[in-house]
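forwarding from the other thread:

> can someone predict this with fe (ii) ion?

sure thing
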Amino acid sequence: MPTQVLFKNEEHANYLLEDSTHGKFGYSNQHLIIHNERAMLLDPDGHKVYPYANGELSARMPRHRIEYVFLSHRDPDLLVSPDAWLAISEVQALLTNTWLDFILHFGMDGVTSDRITSIPHEGMTLHLGGSPLMILPTQFLASGTNFQIYDPISKILYSGDLGASAGIGYTIVEDFNDHIQYMRGFHQNYLASNKSFKLWAKMARQFEIDMIAPQHGAILTKKTHVSAFIDWVENLPSGVDLEDQVNKLPV
Ligand SMILES: [Fe+2]
């Protein structure tokens, strides 16, 4: 699938590396942020996706300009390939200490794990080529310690598993109301509770967001869709809210 430009000006670019597995591994997107020829790769998926993502990056810049690989949470669809990225470049991986023990199970050792920079629990502002990127604490969306990235230049919110959709044949959301059916199951099965959505919505309304770019499925590129999504998810019961699905003995 082709790489798409989500935003571009003279010094800043945001690329979507569309799912190269045609949905076989859960419709995973990789995202790339470039500022002043310095790059950050977000949630790089596993070793089957790695050759494709590496090829797409190499076509745009030399490897030594990839400064960061950002790891938003603990899932294998992003923790499997960082060892390879760290082995072929001088990149720093950004990961909370909470999940450090998990990534070691994917083959990482002292050769590469020394270049993991810990994201503090309360998040941080990072500078990429001089441009600030806000790493936002979004705990329990999806894992207990979890982060999203807000890019104030493109005004894109990289939302990780929040906003994810599955089973679709498009990259950009055109009809938000129709799109809800493809998001609902993911949000209710993977994400903790409505309280976590409400806390996120309160935080998200403090930013001017032009796009929401999740790790899975289609991108919300219209501001009207961004606010519709915030309103929708704020009122969605999920996870432990669905009491009839929790802690019941099997029949
Ligand atoms: Fe994910």
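Residues 3-240 form a domain with the Metallo-beta-lactamase; Chain A fold (CATH 3.60.15.10). thats all i got for now
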